[in-house]
C-alpha cells in the first residue's frame, strides 16, 4: 500500500503501552505514523514492531513539555509531505502524593506533561490540519479528569486542565473540520506502566479487570472514522468489571 | 445468512427517523430485529424497507409506557428463541412549554415516555440478556440530558431521569456482562420528526448542521462491538458545525 | 412581632426532621409558616413546637403528589393574604432496591414524590411570587442527584429529574426576581427518618458524621437572604467527616 | 475589640475589587487581615480603607506564583501569632485569546496565577490551620471553571485545574477540620477590573446585571460560619439577570 496519509502519536513509551498500541493500530490502517517520546530505545522497539508488521513509521525523540521538541516533531512531519489525518497526545504521568508532601516541582511537572505538552501539540496539529479542514486530534484522559481524589490531587488538577483544553479546542475547531476528542480511560490499562508503577493495584484487578490495549485502540479508530455529521467529543472507556 | 441473534428497537416511528435507522442497521448486520412503536403503519413501512434489503424483522405494536405492551414485546422476542444481542430504547418525546403553562399531564407524559418506558424496557432486556451474560442496551439521550433550559424544562427533567437510570443500570449490570450505554444526541437529527416538529429551527441548521441517521447508527454499532475490557458507557454525538 | 410575610414547607414529617426544622427556623425569623405533609399528627406536633417558641403557623394536610392537595394548600396561603417570601419543597422519599426487583409502582412513586410534587409546588409558588418579583424557592436534593448508584437507581433517577427541574426553573424565573435553589444534601441527616429507615448506616456514621438539622436550616436561610446581585442556585452540604 | 484571630487574602488589587472587599469584610468581623498582592500602592489604599473603618490589617507585597513570596507571606502571618481562621485565594487572571494565537507564555502564566499560586497558598494555609483543626480556605472560580469556551480556553483550563485542586483538598482535609470551598463566580463583578478589562461587555450588563462586591463577601462569610456538620464545598454566585 502506498502511503498517502500520516498520523502522529506523542507519548510513546514501552511497547506494551497505549502510545505504542495506538501507533501500531494507525500504521496497520495504512498511515505513516510518526512516533515520539523521550526514550529512543523504547521508540526503536516500537518502530521495529510496526515495520515487522508491514507498517511505516518514523521515530522522533521528543519531550512533550519542550516547545522546541514539539516544533521539531512537526517540522519532520511537515517535511514528509503527507497530510496529517490523526494525532494522539498520549502523555499521561501520575505521581500520587498527599498534598502537603507534594513538591512544587511535582505539581508543575504533572501539569506540564499532562496539559502544557497537550497545548503545544494541539497548536501544531491544528496548524497542520486546518488547511485541509480535516483530521482527528485525541487526548487521553483518566478517571481523575472528572474527580479529584487524594493522593491524586495534583494529577487530577492536571487532567482537569487537559479536559478543559480539549473542550475549548473542540468548540473552536470542530466547525473548521477538525475532530477533537477527549477519551476518559477509567481504569487500569493492561500494560507495562501500570504493572510497574501500581503493581499491587494492577494485580488486584485480575486480567478481566484491566483495559486491553487493542480494545482501546479500536475505539479510537472507530471514533476517527465517524462522519462529521455525528462526532463524539468525549467518551469513557472502562473494563466491564470496573466499579465506577 | 441464517439468523442466529436478535435485536430490538423500541421507539420506531417514521422511516426517516433514528429508530428506523437503528433497526435497519442492526438488520444489515444479520440480526433478526424486532421493531416496536405505536403506529402499525409506520412500523410496516420500516419492516418493508428492512426486508427489501434482505433483512429479517418482526413488527410489534407497542406503547412504551404501558407495562403490558413492553411485556408482550419481550414475550414475542422470547418465543422466537434467538439470543438478544442488542436493544435500543429510542423513545424521545419533547414538548417545549414555558413552565407555568406546562400541564401536569404533559410533565407526566414526557417522563413516562422518556424514562418510565426505558425502565420497563430495561428490566425486560436485562432479564433476557442476563443468562447469557452479554448484550448491549442503548438509551438515546439529548442535549437536555445535561442542561435544563426553558422552554424545555419538562423534557430536560425527563431526560435527566433517563440518564441517571442508565448510569445506575451500567453500574449494576456491567459487571454481569451487560453493556449499558447512554448516547447524548446533541443537535438536530436529519429526519422527519425534527423537520416537522421544529421546522424553522431544522431549516436554519442547513444540511451540514444536522446529524445524519446513518452516522449515528454506525457509532451505535461500533460501541456495541467494543470488547468488554474497554466499554463506553456514555458518549456524545453532534454535527461538526453544532455550537455547544 | 406582627406578621408581614409568609413561608411554606411541603414535606413536613417528624419533628426531628428537615421539613420541621426549616419551618421552625423560618417561623423564628418572623414568617407565618404554612406547614404541609401527609400526617396530621406529625404536623400538629411541629405546629405546637413552633407556637411554643412564639412562632405562627398553619397546618395543612396535603399529599405532594396530588394536584388538588397542592392547589388547596396555596389557596389557604393565598387567603391569608401575606406575601409569600420563602417556599421549600422537602419531600424526599427513598426506597433502595436492585433494579430487577424494583416494581413499576415503586419507580413511579419515587418520581411522583421527589419530582412531580416539586413541579406542582413550583408552579403554585411561582404564580404566588411572580407579581411581587421576589421570593426564594428551595428544592432538597441528595447525593444521588449527581450520581446513580445501585440499589438507589430509582431514587437517583427521580432526584436527577428534580435537579433538572430546579435548573430549568432557575433559568426561567431568576430574571423575574424569583430565587430558585437546589440544595444537595450529601450525607445522612441527624433526624428520625434516617435513624429509622437506615438505622445501621445511621449508627455507623457516629454523631460527627451526621448533618445537624439546625445547621442545614441556617444555610438555607442565609441563601434566602442573599442579595439578588449574587445568587446561589446550587450548593452542597455534607458533614466534614463525610467521604465524597 | 481585641484581635484574636487572623485572616489572609492573596490577590488583593484595586480597592473596588473582590480581594479588597473580602479583606474589608473579614476585618469588619474583627479579624486581623493580611492582605497580599503585587502592587504595594493598591494594597496601601485598601489598608487605609480598612483602618479608617476601624479594622486591623498588614500589607505584604507578594506574587502568588513565587514560592518564596508565598512562604514569606505566611512567615509574617505566623510571626503575628494569631490563629488563622480564614484564607482566600483570589487571584483571577484572564487573557482571552484564540488558541492558535495563544503564546506558551500566556498559557503558562494563566495556569501559574490561577492554579499554581493556589497550590502554594493552600499548602501554607493548611499547614497553619491543621494544628487547630479549623479554618476555612476559599478559592475563587469562574464560569469557565465548568465550561471551556473560546476565546477563553487557556483561562478555562487553568480554572478547571484550580477546581480539581480545590476538590482534592476538600476530600483530603475536611475530615481534618479544614473547610475547603470553591466559589463559582458566574458573571461579571461590579469592580474596576471588569470595567477596565472588558469594558464593553461590562457596560452591556447594566448595573442589575453585575455582581456586587458586598453581596459576594457576605456569602463567603456565611459559608465560613457554617457548622462543620453541614459544610458547603462548592456553590455558584450569579446576578439574578445573568443567563446561564
Q: What can you see in these coordinates?
A:
Four copies of one chain form a homotetramer. Chain A has helices at residues 18-28, 40-52, 67-80, 104-129, 153-173, 192-197, 199-205, 213-224; strands at 6-10, 32-37, 56-61, 84-89, 136-142, 179-185, 188-189, 210-211, 234-237. The first copy, chain A, is an alpha/beta fold and 244 residues long. The model of chain A has no long low-confidence stretch (mean pLDDT 96). The radius of gyration of chain A is 17 Å and the shape is globular. In chain A, helix 1 packs parallel to helix 2, helix 3 (67-80) packs parallel to helix 4 (104-129) and helix 4 packs parallel to helix 5. In chain A, the strands form two sheets. The first copy, chain A, has a seven-stranded parallel sheet with strand order 3-2-1-4-5-6-9, with helices on both faces. A two-stranded parallel sheet of chain A has the order 7-8. Helix content of chain A is 45%, strand content 18%. Chains in contact: A-B, A-D, B-C, C-D. The A-D interface holds A 67, 98-100, 102, 104, 107-108, 111, 115-116, 119-120, 122-123, 126-127, 144, 147-154, 156-165, 167-169, 171-173 and D 67, 98-100, 102, 104, 107-108, 111, 115-116, 119-120, 122-123, 126-127, 144, 147-154, 156-165, 167-169, 171-173.
List the helices and strands and how they pair.
The structure is a homotetramer of 244-residue chains.
Chain A: E1 6-10, H1 18-28, E2 32-37, H2 40-52, E3 56-61, H3 67-80, E4 84-89, H4 104-129, E5 136-142, H5 153-173, E6 179-185, E7 188-189, H6 192-197, H7 199-205, E8 210-211, H8 213-224, E9 234-237
Parallel strand pairs in A: 1-2, 1-4, 2-3, 4-5, 5-6, 6-9, 7-8
